[in-house]
Amino acid sequence: QVQLVESGGGLVQAGSSLRLSCVVSGTPFTGGAMGWYRQAPGKQRELVALINRSGFANYENSVKGRFTISRNTAQNSVYLQMDRLEPEDTAVYYCYAEQITVVATYEHWGQGTQVTVSS
C-alpha cells in the first residue's frame, strides 16, 4: 500500500521560510508527476507546484519566484522550499504523487500539513 508522509509545516511570521518534505513509502512505486496542493479555510484545494519525472516544474502564479519544488525520483520524495511567506499562504498543504503501473496511473495524497503565516 502506498503512503505519502509529509513533514515541515508550522507557524511562522511573514517573510520567513519553510521547507516541506514528502516521502512515498510502499513498494513497488514508480512515480510520475509529484507535487503540492493547498487548501485554505473556505476555499477549494488548489495546485501550488507540480514537477514531472524530467524535472520540469510549473507553479501557481502567486508563488512563482518564492517557492521552489524539487524531487528525488530514486528516493520517491518531493520537496517544497517556501521563501518570503505571506499570510495568504496559510493553508493545509497536501503532497500529491502519481503512481505509474502497467495497467493504470493512480493518484495518491498525503494527510496534509498545516502552514500558518502570521502578519
* Beta-strand content estimate: over 45%
Terminal residue distance: 40 Å
The sequence of SSEs as H and E is EEEEEEEEEEE
Instruction: Tell me how many strands there are.
Output: 11
How many helices in DSSP terms? 0
Shape: elongated
Helix content: under 10%
**CA-atom Rg in angstroms:** 14 Å
- Summarize the biggest pleated sheet: 7 strands, mixed
Derived from helix and strand composition plus strand pairing, the structural class reads: mainly beta
- Quaternary: single chain
Mean pLDDT: 95
Q: Ranges with pLDDT <50 over ≥5 residues?
A: none
List the helices and strands and how they pair.
Blueprint lengths: L2 E5 L2 E4 L4 E8 L5 E9 L6 E6 L5 E3 L7 E6 L4 E6 L8 E10 L4 E5 L3 E6 L1
Parallel strand pairs: 2-11
Antiparallel strand pairs: 1-3, 3-8, 4-5, 4-9, 5-6, 7-8, 9-10, 9-11
